[in-house]
Amino acid sequence: MENIKETITVQANENDKGKRIDSFLNEVIEDATRSYIQKIIDGGYVEITGKKTTKSGNKLKGTETIVVNLPEDETLDLIPEDIPLEIIYEDSDIVVINKAPNMVVHPAHGNYNGTLVNALLYHIKDLSTINGVIRPGIVHRLDKDTSGVIVVAKHDEAHTTLSDMFKEKTLEKTYVCIAKGIFKDKSGRIETLIGRDPRDRKKMAVVTENGKIAISNYEVLDESKNYSLVKVRIETGRTHQIRVHMKSLNHPILGDATYGNSTDGIARQMLHAYRLKFTHPISKKEMVVTAPIPEDFKRALKFAGLDIDKINF
Fold first, then answer.
1. Pairing assessment for the beta strands 212-223 and 227-234 based on DSSP bridges
2. Are strands 46-48 and 51-53 parallel, antiparallel or unpaired?
3. Mind telling me the catalytic residues?
4. Cβ(209)–Cβ(154) under 8 Å?
5. What is the CATH number of the domain that holds 260?
6. Engineered SS bond to 304: which of 207, 227, 229, 293, CB 3.0-4.6 Å?
């Protein structure tokens, strides 16, 4: 068997009774394609209560323990793709991108083209190799439908230093979002545990146990009758952190089909990584980079009756 990069153990419950194992795994493994799920089942990487299964159609009783051994990413010749990139800053050590919405950062689980990495391979000659062929240069990530600042390393020294900054939380990451409703408290600090939603494994949630500490600091910049423009500085980088924290305040992000009850016809969550402040990994000078607001976000601001000029920090 190939080397295993990650093992996921999850308990089926009554809500899972009658589900096919491939449908169940589609909830567990984020961003996985159907063909990838079938491949790991066919390859014997899935165990149901201690027994390997190779049949995608096996149905659950709702009491099983499922163990998924995810194999190491395939060694691929990733194809450079001429996908437009908005480069905010570039030197011999790093490149800073304003990531477009609807773009996956790096290939994973069967999604091997159309990603930021495919675009980087086309536009940037040198990228760090620490994360292997699947994630060259990638130090951190944004959700597919979150736009904004991503810093990419061109060589391994820059990559290692930047990775340490993220681990040690010495970078300042600030987002803007359009949230539903009017906030009673115009600023605040949210400190919770975030983990898998026990009722829906595709979602994250504020939990009381089996979670990781998540800290977000917010400030309302503008408000209209039904919406608020919010600045959020995060101290941690948990999966879906801002989206989960806004939902926990009963102010889900406009357009968020996963954590909101209505998207109001908006195609994606209105969340933008606007500003990143950090020390340059090589020159050690202080860097402050901002990502211009994308057109769909501008249209959503107009729809919500909010003032774009309030985003001026």
1. antiparallel
2. antiparallel
3. 143
4. no
5. 3.30.2350.10
6. 227
Residue 210 lies in a domain: yes
pLDDT digits (tens, 9 = 90+) for 184-220: 999 999 999 999 887 777 789 999 988 999 999 999 9
pLDDT one-digit tens code per residue, 135-160: 788 899 898 999 999 999 999 999 99
* 99 and 155 Cβ atoms separated by less than 8 Å: no
Burial 211-243 (b: 16+ CB within 10 A, else e): beebbbebebbbbeeebbbbbbbbeebbbbbbb
In percent, the amount of the chain with pLDDT more than 90 equals 59
Write out the residue range of the structural domain in which residue 53 sits. 4-71
Contacts of 304 (CB under 8 A, 6+ apart): 178, 224, 226, 227, 229, 254
Claim: this prediction has a pTM higher than 0.85? no
Question: Lowest-confidence range among 6-20, 88-102, 254-268, 269-283?
Answer: 6-20
Tokens of 112: 């091997």
14, part of any domain:
yes
Residues 292 and 247 in one domain: yes
Which long-range CB contacts under 8 A does 196-201 form with residues at least 24 apart?
199/15, 200/27, 201/10, 201/27, 201/28
Judge whether 78 lies within some domain.
Answer: no
> What is d(CA 229, CA 2) in angstroms, rounded to the nearest whole number?
48
The CATH number for 44's domain is 3.10.290.10
